Amino acid sequence: MRSHMLFNLLCSVLLLAQVAWSWPDFVDDVFKRDDASTGTDVSTTASDATSNPTVTATDSGSGTNTGTDTAKETGTTGTGTSTGTGTKTGTKTDTKTTSKVTSVDPRLPAGGASMTNPESTSTTYYKIGQNVTFGWNYTSVEITPTAVDVIAACSSNSATYTLAKNLSYATSSVIWNTNDDNETATNPLLTAYYTLIIYEAGTSPTDVASAGALGPATFSFGMYVTQAPTPLGEYVCVTCNAATSNMERQTLGFVFTMIAITVVSFTLFAGGVGVFSWL
Q: Average pLDDT of 87-94?
């Protein structure tokens, strides 16, 4: 009986010794499993932390804004790393157009131009082949045009000559080289009257301008071509009123002849019938 109890006691001691000997490995296995779980949680936490990265944007019309968050956490036996990058690209274009609107009383007349060179009080004649200078001042112009066109028109040959195209409104004079236009123009310059026309560029010389706007301004002048001297005996004035043609002289001779015949015939007839017997 005593030996059986000793045997049982010895078995119990051996069993406890075996359990005590394997206890550290059991503890290590338990803690390893806990550490791995912790590493997974850290990775998940890092991933959650970077799913919404912080973005700093500067609005300057056009720009690219980039924000980056990185979370890294190391456990005892596990490591979790998560990186998130967010990019925001935006383009902003601001277009602002400002137009100046001039308010004009509709009762006002259209603007025009007054000649300063030459003065518009009399007709001026220019020699074809020389440079001709025209100058003017704008009057009653409330709506300033950007540019003007200047032309010269001749009704004798139904031709127009361009003196200036898109001339700045600030420039109120033009020089016309009549020699160049006379040599290169399809219709050469004639000895005739011309009309200078100043009007707003982009419009027609026949357009009617609104109140305050620049309307076509006109000025008349003459052009002539010089000729070689002609002896006085050979000169024929084609525009003089005193000069008569052969046809006119023959007509006048026939009229006076018929008047003379009528007077003589009436006198002889009256004397023959005694019309003048009472004298």
A: 53
